[in-house]
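Worked example

This section walks through a single chain of length 126. The input is the sequence exactly as stored; nothing has been trimmed or padded.
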Amino acid sequence: MSDMTEIFGEPISRYTWDDAVNDGSFIDITECLKFLGLDSLFEDITGFALTTNVYCRIIDFDNADSKNINARISRLLVCVKKSVESQNDNYPIFFEYMGHSLIVSMEGRNMETREPVLTIMLAEDY
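Given that input, the structure is written out below as tokens.
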């Protein structure tokens, strides 16, 4: 039993990264990164997601074809990697991209495994 459970008791509800992907709040781009060969940019990270706002405003703002979407995801992730490195992996990471204030957070995938995952969001989504 954790200290928090001893103090407050069992949580009433939990909302995890997996839950956000399943309900559409986050768009899981993990397989896209693997396809593009970009998953190796981030050691030990098991999942990557964009909020729907990031996807709609930055990645697919003009109903692009898959080639353009992949190129936009690639460019965004290279910027994320540079921002993570420049801020010494101190999450959350704040940076500007295409006129938008973005945040990269690291959290556990779910309450059981706590696998590290990254989520890229607009500052207003945080």
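What to look for: Residues 14-125 form one domain.
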